[in-house]
Structures are given as structure tokens and as C-alpha cells.
Amino acid sequence: MPKNVLLKNINFDQAKRLDGSQEWLSGLLKNRTCSPNHMNLSRNRFFLLVFAIILLPLPVYKLIWLAGTRETTGTMYFVGHGNLGSVLGISTYPVIWFKSGKDTIFFNGNVNIPLKVDEKVSVRYRRADPADAKINNFSCIWGDTLAYSLAPILFFLVIFFHPDLVPRKVRVALGGKPLIKYIE
Fold it and tell me: Are 121 and 78 in contact (CB under 8 A)?
């Protein structure tokens, strides 16, 4: 029997009968869970998988939003103040208007963007929901996505690089009970 065969639903006694060699089988069975309910991953692949599952929806959502938007020109109408900002004078946001068909749409821009009244600005909006508009620059479109991604990225980096949380040479078994377990 070749040594690179993946064994599923087979126990050690059955495997011993398939091939007289116990050495490669015991090594294979020691490092693998032979249950079809488990998926064994290296430490790096495990972190890549979890990272992708948790963080990929954020930029994918934004890319889908961008693919369905149109670009137009809006005009800065006036400077708004948040509730606390109006009292303390610390946060301001531009109120932008633009035309979508026969409708005039107003929306609040990001905080502290230095625009002047009646200044023209590029705007992106979805035709189905023009009120969900954004000023067309990197910080206004991608800023919230980057902000929401930053905490999980830092969290995963700390766990990944801390030597005691997940040891370097460990394999991770997914599935069954417990859902995640380390295989030394």
C-alpha cells in the first residue's frame, strides 16, 4: 500500500492488516485523526482560514457596494455639527447634496473634511438607495472598512505571534468535540 494514501474511517488494526509495516502507519495515525469529522490543519493554515472567514466579508461587501455605484458631482451645502460637537465645537461634517433623477439627495459626509460651502465634490451612490452615498475619496469609502478590520487584525497578530497561546509546531484539528483542538 502506498504511503501517501489518506486513511478515512480506518482504525489501527485494520491499517496493520493492509500493510505489514507498522512504522509508517503508527506515525501517520499519531499525527492524524482518522475520523472524517475532523479537518487537520497546520497552525499557519488555521490562522489563515480564521482570518479569511472573519475579515474577508468586510472588503468583499465594500467591493460589491462599489460595483453597484454610480459617480456624480455633489455640492457642499453647509457644515453640520454633531450634538456634542455643537456644544464643544470639536466635530464638524459637510452636508452634501446631489441630483438623482428628479430627486435632490442630502447626506452627511465624514467628520472633519475641510470643504467650503458650494464646493463641488465627487460622490458615489447606489441607484437603488441614493441616500447611501459617500464622498468619492479613499478615506470616505474605505475608512470604515479599515477601522472595523483593525481590531481583529491586531487580535490575530497577538495570538499568532505569542508563543504560549498557540505553539509553533502544533497542528489544529477542526470538527468534533471540542470544535478546535491542538494535536502535538
Answer: no
Q: For 19, what's the count of Cα atoms within 13 Å in the CB-facing half-sphere?
A: 14
| Residue in the block written with cell 492524524 | 32
pLDDT of residue 176: 74
**Three cell numbers written together for 128:** 437603488
Q: How many other C-beta atoms are found inside a 10 Å radius of the C-beta of residue 36? A: 9
The answer to whether 50 and 41 are in contact (CB under 8 A) is no
Q: Is residue 181 part of a domain?
A: no
What are the contacts of 103-106 at 24+ separation with CB within 8 A? 103/130, 105/130, 105/131, 105/133, 106/77
pTM of structure = 0.65
12 part of a folded domain = no
